[in-house]
Predict the 3D structure of the following.
Amino acid sequence: MQPPFTLQVRTTLAACKKTVSFIQHNRLWQNFGQIKWIARIVTAAGILLALQFIKAFEFWKFTPFNPNALANAGANLSHIGSNLYQQVADMYSGSYKYIVLICMQALIGHFGGKTSYILSKIPYEPTFKNYLHDQWRIIKVSGLSWVSEIFYGAIAGALLGIVQLTLLEQPVNLLIQCYLLGFTIADVYCAHNGMSIMQSYRFVKGYAPVLVIVGAVYYLLLLIPVVGAPAGAIFCTVALLLTMNRLVAPNPELPTAPITPNNLPHEQ
């Protein structure tokens, strides 16, 4: 039985409040081991890609104060808000956000691995072999999320068109995108518990509020220049694991053996 909606929301928000202090107290940024140089390179690539999100603000330009323009202030603010929403929506659509997240896998794997060890004593070793396994998995998970986003977005658009509620299409699409981005991040929890990708995809459906909140937080953090992408990946991964640790009761269907380099789950 899945936790109630309100409990999921409260637990996720509470975990978000504790995430930064948890990271600092446990010094999760230490001991990258064999993947230190990989983390630096791919994170730098992800930052360069994420900088494209700043284009959403390219219309903000300084202009001298003009008292005569006060009468048009409301219209100008409305225009700016409309442009911002549209440009951000364009950035969020498609595979772009998943590519950025793929580049953050070294950070997701490291901070997620250390968090899972602290919370559940699941062994974590920052080796090149484990990194390659996790990198290949997030590529497949991101591909699944992208295809699902297109599929469910098309269905939602068609249904809203039938009932003449096309004004809701963009908000609904945003919810879908937040959910699937949250799933891509949440898969780290499922992987640590020995689930295949499709098992993970089915398992997280009962935690939709958690995924939507985590995905929305990552979306917002992506808008922060330079540090948004890596900070968002770290923050959302740790927050997600803290949340699931509180919400998920011991599941007899999950494997009891710890996940080690010699006992990595095979995707189906």
The two ends are 25 Å apart (CA to CA). Residues 11-61+68-247 form one domain. Residues 128-162 form the longest helix (35 residues).
